Amino acid sequence: MGVFAYLADSSSLFYLINNQKNMKKITFLGMFLVAFCSQLVYSQQLETNAPNGLTFYGTASSPISSGAVVPAGKKYFWSSGITCGVADSTAKEGTYQRYGNTKVQAESILKNLLSTLKKQGLSFKDVLFMRVYLAPDKFMGKTDYQGWFDAYGQYFGTKENPIKPCRSTLGIAGLVTAEKFVEIEIVAVYP
């Protein structure tokens, strides 16, 4: 009977562990799994060195970084949470057209943040961290995560900007008004 068959029964597991012959098998199996899994994780790690000295870590296939290292002595830029502006000033208050869907709102906010960063001598290549709040789209009846991901993908992890900042995306009950579905905060690091 194989090791995995023993693991299905707790009394067999006790026997397996307390049997001297099997301890060698368990030890070898454990060492093999640790070595294999750590090599698998390591081989998927992506390290991106940003122009401002930041180092981002994560998997190559992920749209965000798992972590980052900021060199000592760097100065930070912190934004407050920003929501979108009016997408169509001719649209009535309370209509979908007034602020747009999640993607339109996210694009508006990202353009606003980029403008703010430029005034500080920064760009999206300097962004270390993003915190994104998503509220349900009252017209769709659900939170549109894909709309947010699509807007984000236009600015980060691209050929023009390979930086993939650390990010938290939180689904929340609501924002300032029921017609606004996205709020974004960023932290950037000066060169």
Offer a concise description of the structure.
The chain has 191 residues and is an alpha+beta fold.
- Terminal-residue CA separation: 61 Å
Give the strand line-up of the largest sheet.
4-7-5-6
Largest sheet: 4 strands, mixed
- Dominant shape: elongated
Please compute the radius of gyration using only Cα atoms.
24 Å
CATH superfamily of the largest domain: RutC-like
Kindly state the number of beta strands: 7
Structural class: alpha+beta
Spell out the blueprint of helices and strands.
Elements (H helix, E strand, L loop, with lengths): L2 H5 L2 H9 L1 H24 L1 E5 L5 E5 L7 E3 L6 E3 L17 H4 L2 H18 L7 E8 L10 H9 L12 E6 L10 E8 L2
Helix pairs in contact: 5-6
Descriptive account of the structure:
- By secondary structure, the chain is an alpha+beta fold.
- It folds into two domains: 41 residues, no CATH class; 132 residues, 60s Ribosomal Protein L30, Chain: A, CATH 3.30.1330.40.
- A four-stranded mixed β-sheet has the order 4-7-5-6, with helices on one face.
- It is 36% helix and 20% strand.
- The N and C termini lie far apart (61 Å).
- It is elongated, with a radius of gyration of 24 Å.
Descriptive tags:
single chain, 60s Ribosomal Protein L30, Chain: A, 191 residues, disordered N terminus
